[in-house]
Amino acid sequence: MSYTPRELRTTYEPGKEYLHFVLAYEPRIGAVGSAMNADVTIERPGPCTREWAGGLVRCDPNALHTTLVDPRRIPDLFHPCVDDDKDSPAAVAGSGCGCFRTWYDPHFGLPVVAEHYRTADGGRTDRWTYSTYAPLELRAGDTFASLVLNDGGNFWIRTADGVLTLLPQEHQGGYGTGYGGTGPGRLARYITGLLASDGRQTNAGGYQADADPRIAAWVASRAADARQELTLRDLQRIAQD
Ligand SMILES: [Zn+2]
Fold first, then answer.
1. Where are the domains of the chain?
2. Cα(94) to centroid of ligand 1, in Å?
3. What is the pLDDT of residues 169-182, one digit of tens each?
4. Cα of 99 to ligand 1 centre, how many Å?
């Protein structure tokens, strides 16, 4: 439903020197939040991050972006990069920067925030750290094509149409490889669910039965630690070994 002005009473009072405001978001593709979706921080962008970031759509900060930053830093979402304005409140000593940039993922509607960290020593350290939510499942009509493990420490999924997205993940439901813990156990269950459904079961936490023991052993081994992209066929082969 669209916003109409009568729903909102502004509370600006000049004597109090502050203004309450509302950031509105009208979900067109989808709405997500940290109650259900896992928030994911990408500090070491791998090839998948670069491919995915190249398809994001730049936009103004909206209410979903504010959920990805510390509440005290919400105003900083609106400050320009030092590259665009050397007098930006995000600028540090003239050439350093601590700005934010905001996008949305056009396929899943997920908000994406990147935090810029550039030191004022000629930019010797200059990096962007991405924060976003993982989807809970692929979209209706999507077909699983491949699973990417350990791309800069993150897990991705590719559809037959070439859409790349973070592996569906529930809140506090992270994945891992190379040891016998909860994260690898969750990944082994996810892969077992994919195999049992011929790639149709893509929702996070949807497969409740035990993981295939051969898949579980492989995910917990060092062999799973490398960055690798695996099709359903590759996964079937692992389950047959
Ligand atoms: Zn910047």
1. 15-133, 144-240
2. 11
3. 998 889 999 999 99
4. 4
